[in-house]
Amino acid sequence: MNSVIKFISGRRGAWATLLIGLFFAVLAFGPLNGAATETAPGVGLPKDNETVLVDEALKTLPGSDATAAIVVYDSETPFTEAQKTWLQGSFDAKTQQLSGGANEKFLEFTNLEVMGKAFVPPATISENGKTALITIPLDKSEEVDVVAERVKEMRDLAKDGLPSGMTAYVTGPEGFSADISNVFAGADFKLLATTAMVVIVLLLVTYRSPTLWLIPLLVVGTVDGMAGGLVRSLAEWIGITLDGSITGILSVLVFGAGTDYALLLISRYREELLQFTNRHEAMARALRESGPAILASGTTVILALLTLSFAQLDGNRALGIACATGVFLAMVTAVTVLPAALVVFGRWIFWPLTPKFGGINKSDNGLWAKLGKGVSRKPVIVAIVGFILLGAMASGASGLKIGLSATDRFLAKPEAVAGQEVLAGAFAAGSSTPTTVIANNAQVDAVVAKAEAVTGVDSVKVGAKNDSITKIDVVLNDASGTDEAYATIVALREAVHAVDGADAKVGGLDAQGLDVKNAYAADQSLVIPLILALVFIVLVLLLRSFVAPVLLLLTVVASFFASLGAGWLVFVNLLGFPALDLSVFLFSFLFLVALGVDYNIFLVTRAKEEAEKLGTRQGMIKALSSTGGVITSAGVLLAAVFAVLGVLPLVALAQIGVIVCIGVLLDTLLVRTVIVPALAFIAGKKFWAGFGKNKYQD
To answer: In angstroms, what CA-CA distances link 134 with 103, 158, 423, 434, 579?
Structure first.
């Protein structure tokens, strides 16, 4: 290890390290660079899931390559006779049909024919007379641009010649597909630009140098680009699907973790430059002392992310693999390319606050040293007050609700969502998104009878069939994505599954939502204990102690629940979110525990180093004084970077950003600076109790 450190920090080795890094960067941006994506998050249920099996069965039925757009016309007052005529047309005595209605605007799009002519069913008016809908059958297209252009044309036509007092929306499957694609268009660039600006500002404030900030920014920015390209190639190779939310979180995590590691290394390098005349020797010492903390921190985050590989949902597995790859690159670069780049430029890179040999380390008598001494005088009281504060914040989670409807998942409400809300208020709530039942042909009548008898079912209609199975459309009374709709799905499944020989299965949007909800619950039950176990093992191996890892895990878990409670109060009282998205609890826990432990690792590894010379009490004070400023800067930066997730269009990402932002600030300003030192002071040398000889003094 010493030879590697000497090579990286050496005069010639530093240049060689930079060239090696450049070589890998060229590979990542060139032949190993995968195609970018701006798609919205998918579902990713297992292949044996009931909803997935229904979707596969539907592909064998006539019309399986079809979709639909729903045009919704709305008015604050009941439609006038003139408006009804505009919507439905007038009765043609010759054809015995309505003609001249708004439905005829969309004949060029429909795939339905009647007597050899294109046909769109006439408008259906709601019972209250204020809302009308037109369903346009369409050929399904996988081309995002085709869907977007088609929907745009239909929206223009829907609004063309619209009578005064009426509003038009295009929603349904086609409308949602177009709007989801539109809200993610350009999102990656917006996120990257915002993240980079936040990092630049905070680095300038931290270093107060017009030059130093450029090196970590260029290194981390390059790593982010490399990670994006490599992850996209990896996704194609192993068969995982990336989407806009995964690539967004990946960028935030790489920038956040990479900059944190850079801050820690640079801080220790600046400190060692006061002790060494030769900058290469100073970097070697800085890398030797801070490298293990960076590697341990990165390894902890990587292992925590890889626990998602055991999840049921494809999206969770993809996130884990992608982000683990990004953090690995950030970690390796932080202990190779970054120190090489710093040592090549020399001391002047710190101008105007250039560290000089023999200079005084002002941190020994600074704010953080005074704080450490203050905590050491009354650690029990400090620890109790700290945990009371965390508990008070955690109590804010009372009344917490989990599960957003499809219409609540966007920060800015697209037209498809607005139209869906109007539709749900005027017709049977599930009319635009009927639940699908698949059953064997011979038992269709029995399945229909069972479905009609289920409480919460509005109507049942037999649809397309082939030689073996039949599709049955079931309209629910309750709005899609609600607990009531999910309860109906459970009852419907129990009813149709009981029909002998029917092999009935229930799918559709609400069935899918229920299955995703259950999958997230299963993933949480599996992944969260794995995260805690792996983090504990890493801490035990790093610190060679059993007491310290338990206390550190206790603090970060308490911090998570405090941030969850505080976040929920923000969502309810300030942002107006009705519930947490299903993904938020798991992902927030993952990031906060893994990243929260990072700061504890930075502090406690330095305390362990100093305790060998000064004892536990003075060692912790020295560690706090030395790392206080840099860890606080890193925490503020990481919190700000996660808050940037709010620029993406999904409520789930905004919620993750807020909770992680609050949690990181709590870890940085309260847990790491106050509670952890207090616990160490209380425990004394027992804080390090584990395996091996305890050589520390109180």
So the answer is: 6, 10, 11, 16, 32
Q: Cα–Cα distance between 281 and 273 in angstroms, integer?
A: 9
| Measured distance CA(148)–CA(146) in Å, rounded | 6
68: left (phi over 0), alpha (psi -120 to 50) or beta: beta
Tell which wins on pLDDT, 568 or 349.
568
> What's the order of all strands across the beta sheet hosting 457-465?
457-465, 469-476, 435-440, 505-507
Least Cα distance to 665 among 563, 551, 532, 555 occurs for: 563
For 421-514, CATH gives 3.30.70.260
pLDDT at 495 over 60: yes
- Check: CATH 1.20.1640.10 for 361-413+520-692? yes
Distance of CA 9 to the CA centre of its chain: 37
Residues 339, 269 contacting (CB under 8 angstroms): yes
204-238 pLDDT, tens per residue? 887 788 888 888 888 988 898 888 888 888 877 87
Q: What is the pLDDT of residues 417-458, one digit of tens each?
A: 888 888 878 877 666 678 999 999 999 999 999 999 999 998
CATH number of the structural domain 65-183: 3.30.70
Torsion sign, CA atoms 87, 88, 91, 95: positive
Q: Rounded to a whole number, what is the distance in angstroms from the first to the last CA of the chain?
A: 32
Amino acid type, 22: L
CATH class, domain 1-32+199-359, is mainly alpha
